[in-house]
Write a structure and sequence with these properties.
three-stranded antiparallel sheet; about 10% strand; globular
Length: about 450
């Protein structure tokens, strides 16, 4: 009798357990709202959808840069006695950045896609994106072979693309964003690759999100909305599948990443300020296996771009492959030398005085001249006599007459294969018009880091 009672008790407990599990299975795996008590992802409770994943995936080619505070600005005396680089303390949010400069191969993939999509119908789309190979031409140098072969010959495919303007670099970043997000949707089984995409119907992230892209859609994401007719819907940004856009880094981000102070700090203290992306001011390796080897690609002195035959110093008369030399403490290659790199910012000499100490940036369209070119910053600052029809920017920046700075002057950072040691410091700043290019300027992309500040 006692055994029967024990068995009945165990059976009852087991059945209750099954019942509880069964009842629990009807609840949302995503939990319930702390503010309303309604289940998430449950059509019986309104169907408000909450994704399970909250972590952002790193996009192809990117490494995580954990943000923080640092002293931005000059690390050594300005050899030209310029006052556009005053040191000051700022904070940069965590973000992602390309481990290497964008290579010729990367950019050739972009040109190929443009040809495939636009073909002969819109040749101007391809022509607008092509690098200007004539940047290699020099009136007093025999660089003609570089004009013909540097961009397209496979020997140079892993070398940084040059001859690309700031505008072209931004177009590439937007194209890359779309290709990465398209692949993410393909890998998630949402889309199938559509070989018939053309100028009138091809995948863009914005086009997919607003419903105007009509490619080969295999399925949607589960839609618990009780009013849904199919139980599926298109992916939204809040689902966490799509990545933010690739873009150029800001000047502050680029300088912070280049210095790589994560490897030079302890207990919230910078143990030794760096002038370059490495610990010492020495431009040669301290590694016993590479004693005397240069750690970057730069111009050693007048007429010396690569050293003496049989004992080359940096080993490159022009740019070197994008993974040459040693990466800095963030794992980034060639943040000093090889090619200078475009950043997002508009150039102003006083940017380092007129700044926000959190994520400093001059480039927001409506604030390009804020405190430096707007009415308040002119010597005619008399609000009683303000003329709304006057372009006060020209009083300070009369391009081509009193200055070569304009609202289209963009900052580029770092030294190149043709620069001396001074420009290898990440703090140095120069500028060029956004539609111009050079054989010494390339670029790399960045991406916002969403959520936690600590890199994962």
């Amino acid at each position: 009798m006692r055994k029967r009672f024990i068995f009945s008790t165990i059976l009852a407990v087991f059945c209750c357990g099954i019942l509880m599990v069964s009842c629990g299975s009807k609840k949302s795996k995503a939990g319930k709202s702390n503010s309303t008590g309604w289940n998430y992802n449950d059509p019986n409770y309104g169907g408000f959808y909450v994704t399970q994943s909250r972590d952002q995936e790193a996009g192809p080619g990117l490494v995580a840069i954990e943000g923080g505070t640092f002293t931005m600005g000059a690390t050594q005396e300005n050899v030209y006695s310029e006052w556009d680089n005053t040191p000051r303390q700022v904070t940069v949010s965590s973000f992602y950045m390309d481990q290497t400069e964008v290579s010729n191969l990367d950019y050739l993939e972009y040109i190929y896609w443009l040809n495939r999509i636009y073909g002969s119908d819109y040749p101007e789309m391809i022509n607008r994106a092509l690098p200007d190979t004539l940047v290699w031409r020099n009136s007093m140098s025999y660089n003609e072979p570089m004009v013909e072969i540097y961009f397209r010959h496979p020997a140079y495919r892993d070398y940084p693309v040059v001859g690309v303007s700031w505008l072209q670099a931004n177009d590439y970043a937007l194209w890359r964003s779309d290709r990465v997000n398209e692949m993410l949707l393909i890998e998630a089984g949402i889309l199938e690759f559509d070989p018939n995409q053309d100028k009138d119907n091809h995948f863009t992230t914005d086009g997919y999100l607003d419903g105007s892209y009509t490619g080969i859609v295999l399925k949607g994401i589960e839609d618990p909305n009780p009013k849904s007719l199919t139980g599926e819907r298109s992916v939204r940004m809040e689902d966490g599948i799509l990545l933010p856009k690739y873009r150029l880094p800001t000047e502050a981000e680029w300088e912070y990443a280049a210095l790589g102070l994560i490897g030079n700090s302890s207990n919230e203290r910078i143990t030794e300020r760096r002038s370059y992306p490495w610990d010492t001011d020495n431009l040669r390796s301290s590694n016993k296996d590479y004693t005397g080897k240069f750690v970057a690609n730069f111009k050693r002195g007048k007429g010396d771009y690569m050293g003496v035959a049989g004992s080359l110093n940096d080993g490159a008369t022009f740019p070197a492959p994008v993974t040459s030399y040693w990466p800095n403490d963030f794992g980034l290659y060639n943040m000093a030398g090889n090619v200078s790199e475009w950043v997002l910012d508009v150039y102003r000499p006083l940017s380092f005085e007129d700044f926000n100490d959190q994520n400093p940036y001059r480039g927001n369209a409506e604030n390009l001249n804020y405190k430096d070119g707007d009415y308040m910053s002119t010597i005619q600052n008399d609000w009683n006599n303000k003329d709304n029809n006057t372009d006060y920017t020209k009083q300070m920046y009369d391009y081509g007459k009193t200055t070569l700075i304009s609202d289209h002057s963009r900052v580029y950072k770092g030294g190149s294969w043709a620069d001396g040691p001074y420009y290898l410091s990440p703090s140095t700043r120069r500028y060029l018009e956004e539609d111009q290019s050079s054989s010494t300027i390339g670029f790399r992309c960045a991406m916002n880091m969403i959520g936690a500040a600590q890199a994962k």
